[in-house]
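User: Predict the complex.
Assistant: Input components as received:
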Amino acid sequence: MAQAAGTIVVLDNGGHTCKAGFAGQVDPKRIVPNLIAKSKAERKTFVGDQFDACTDFSGLQYRLALEKGYPINWETEAEVWTRIFGKDVLAVNTADCRLMLSTPPLCPSSILATINEIVFEHFNFQSLCSACPQLLASYAQQAELEARSEPQPAATLVVDCGFSSTHIVPIFDAQAINFGIRRLAVGGKVLTNHLKQVISHRQWNVMDETHMINDVKEQMCYVSLDLAADLRAAAVRRGSAITREFVMPDYIHVTRGYVKPVVVDVDADASADASADAAGDRGGCSGAADGAGASVGAAGGARTPGPPAKKARPPDGSAVRGGGGGSAAGGVSARGGEAQQVLALGVERFGTGEVLFYPSDIGLDEAGIPEAIVQAVGATLPDLHEALYSNIVLTGGTAKLPNLAARLEAELRQLVPADFALNVRPAADPIVAAWRGASHFASGPLFERSSVSRDEYLEHGHAFVKRVCHN
Amino acid sequence: MKVDEGAGRASTRQRQTKVRALDDHARQELKRKRLDALEQDNWHEDALEPDDDDYEPNESDDGELFLGEQKKGRKKSAGKGAKKKTRGGDQFREETGRTKSFDDIVDDEQYHKFPSWVPTYLSAAVKPSTRPPRKFCYLTGLAGKYKCPVTGDYLGSLEAYETHKETRLKGMV
């Protein structure tokens, strides 16, 4: 509808990061944290992309632009967007640009109205086109298949494990089936905060170290493929095959925490060894590090006893179960004469991801992702069920948890009729999938038709924008 | 015999009521608070006050908290800083009249007046699971074998219960 011709700016406005770039390109120009961070140590405030210059992440305070995945804090958002459009990131004059923006599904109309006001009246964009990021992610998948000249799937079920929440959106005929959308209040943020609480309960008080715990989550957590076995392995009091140590950054010598390479216990019994290998492989993040740490010396030996008193491992190698076994204590370990503070994670490594599958673990009265998928598909027409199940796409930053897709498929298999094909595929790059789809869509022929120009907005108002962009 | 049993049961019940076991409502409330904490970002408006030491508490109700620490300058400022943070957060929300919270916006949309077939933010929420909740020790993350009679939390071992007594049960038993 819009007749204007200007540069098309593509913005995927996520809860944690805002992906910004230009239409037609493969990747966003920059991924900008969608927040204002305040550093106590440096006594500075970082807005959006300035965050990259931050070096001391201790005691950072965040003000996020989005609450529960919906843009609420417009003071923050406007500041971040100003930085994005400004000379440091995109360097565009917004009055000469058109905007492709992602807005969360089933967005309350007052929020949509505010978006319009900000886009048209504050930034003076020529036109606006908005769509939900899950739909855009499905466009990305389409484009990918097109490029490989593979057949297009009949329907897509996008499972977007984002920062603020997990959205499940059935898509048919390039449109989201809005009565099938389901939302789970668990996302990366809840996982990080949960891990933060758990570690604070069990080891160090890290309630102020959101940034570091996010790092811990990204580097150490994985989704268990065999929960019972992993729990048994983690219950071993010492030298558990699952336990890995995370060296906490002190922001002087170490600016980014890392997982300590692990030497596999020689005297551990065979089953523990087997599960060690399995855990290493499944963990993904630490598997490669195994064996590289021969020079480090036995991790357990060098450590001074942590806060809770620990009993020595029985000589016969039998596992002592229960108690604080899973929660190995953090401690100070000496390495090369320098004191390092380490965080030992055992059961937490896979317990965190469990929340996605069983939100009841943290007291949330919602079904997990597998059941939520069944609920979402069940809300659509029966003819679509098989097509949806056979093409499930995982996107969003949390989808980067190792094994998420495999576990999801295994759990879904129990819930989905046996004669239905089941396919769970993570997107090529879960974080930028929606942006890529948006970029592809914005450079396609449909973009003009589904965007609203500034004049049209001024003439017809919010309802018109809603009709054009959100059907 | 039957009478005796009944009496015995009654007396144990009475003994139990002496310990202030939290009722369902209180447990729900605690659960809700914990869930809210998981949603929050940690922004406090006044936390970056450059002159922490010059800060004078203007709220009288704060006074008693820090009376004992008046002379220990270092500790005093730390304690006040912590208190001030929460104050600052509240102030920011109320005084600037800044955007409502997301929950308020959803309330204002009055989704309950919509016909049931119209998909809304609220109707999109995932329904509760059909499976019973799993029981994990909230301290160790292992199987929760025992249930705290007061708070209803699951615990995995005696060791965990000791910690539980010192933290969540503090001041209750």
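Chain A touches chain B through 69 residues (CB under 8 Å).
Let me know if you want any component modeled separately.
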